[in-house]
């Protein structure tokens, strides 16, 4: 465990995440809605290139490294794969289709000065609160 | 054909996607953490609310790095706009759509344990079948919703 490098890595990784979303115009709801309306399929390129690179790194890292560089173990994503996962995903898509904003861009987009995204950010915080208080599993 | 599918070009999409993947990959090989975006909306409530749910170990133990990741993503976007020739565009989507869409998406992402980055990028990269099914589900409902909205509102 190396605390300094650990936190620097999270900061650098987060910055790359936000910069990438900006470069790919995903912080603009109009670009997302253009995909959902089949006017521009760029979003699939974004999702495809991001997922392919991450897939290779995730699978290689777990095989060639015994542990992460600055921490003790690789986390495993919890996938219970219940009916609730699909219901939640379906509801998420409805919200995403109304606004054209998913969680990453709702946060990162603020850095581009796209201030109306604050409304989405507040909505998401409220939605997560309602889920946690009254609809948790 | 490609001009019809990608009227604004392809390279910024592919390059941006690679940067997103690089950020998530970097965090994984250095810290072992799986960096989906939406959990921060639950974990951050543990700073403010006493409700038991927000204090479960998986949320409380990750609340600091999730918040740092979120703030860093804002900084990364800011740097991109300041240093490179990337447009800063203020959305024309109406306020009620942004808010209500956010409310529903925030609820759904947390109810279903993931969003576009969590299920979409990290989940598929983890070879998770439930995540793949979640992605197909939210792509389907999002496409139907957006096209219905366009039909009703007269197009974006």
What does this molecule look like?
- The complex is a heterodimer of chains A (137) and B (156).
- By secondary structure, chain A is an all-alpha fold.
- Chain A has one domain (3-134).
- In chain A, 68% of the residues lie in helices and 0% in strands.
- The longest helix of chain A has 23 residues, at 42-64.
- Chain A is globular and about 45 Å long.
- The mean pLDDT of chain A is 95.
- Chain B has a domain at 91-156.
- Chain B has helices spanning 2-5, 11-31, 40-43, 57-60, 63-83, 95-111, 116-125, 129-153.
- In chain B, helix 7 packs antiparallel against helix 8 (129-153).
- The longest helix of chain B has 25 residues, at 129-153.
- Chain B is globular, with a radius of gyration of 18 Å.
- In chain B, 56% of the residues are buried.
- Classes of the chains: A mainly alpha (137), B mainly alpha (156).
- At the A-B interface, helix 1, helix 2, helix 3, helix 4 and helix 5 of A face helix 2, helix 3, helix 5, helix 6 and helix 7 of B.
């Amino acid at each position: 465990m190396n605390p300094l490098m650990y936190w620097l890595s999270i900061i650098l990784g987060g910055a790359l995440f936000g910069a990438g979303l900006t470069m790919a115009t995903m912080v603009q709801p109009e670009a997302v809605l253009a995909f959902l309306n089949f006017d521009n399929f760029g979003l699939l390129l974004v999702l495809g290139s991001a997922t392919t690179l991450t897939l290779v790194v995730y699978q290689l890292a777990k095989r060639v490294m015994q542990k992460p560089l600055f921490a003790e173990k690789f986390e495993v994503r919890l996938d219970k794969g219940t009916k609730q996962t699909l219901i939640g995903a379906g509801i998420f898509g409805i919200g995403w289709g109304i606004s054209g904003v998913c969680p990453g861009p709702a946060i990162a987009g603020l850095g581009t000065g796209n201030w109306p995204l604050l409304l989405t950010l507040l909505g998401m915080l409220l939605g997560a609160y309602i889920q946690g208080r009254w609809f948790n599993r | 054909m490609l001009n019809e599918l990608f009227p604004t070009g392809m390279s910024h999409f592919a390059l941006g996607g690679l940067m997103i993947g690089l950020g998530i990959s970097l965090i994984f090989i250095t810290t072992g953490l799986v960096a989906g975006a939406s959990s921060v909306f639950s974990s951050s409530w543990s700073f403010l609310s006493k409700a038991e749910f927000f204090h479960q170990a998986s949320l409380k133990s990750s609340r600091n790095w999730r918040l740092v990741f979120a703030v860093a993503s804002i900084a990364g976007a800011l740097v991109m706009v300041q240093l490179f020739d990337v447009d800063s565009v203020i959305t024309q989507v109406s306020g009620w759509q942004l808010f209500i869409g956010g409310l529903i998406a925030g609820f759904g992402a947390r109810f279903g344990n993931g969003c576009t980055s969590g299920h979409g990028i990290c989940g598929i990269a983890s070879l998770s079948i439930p995540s793949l099914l979640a992605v197909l589900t939210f792509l389907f409902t999002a496409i139907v919703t957006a096209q219905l909205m366009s039909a009703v509102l007269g197009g974006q």
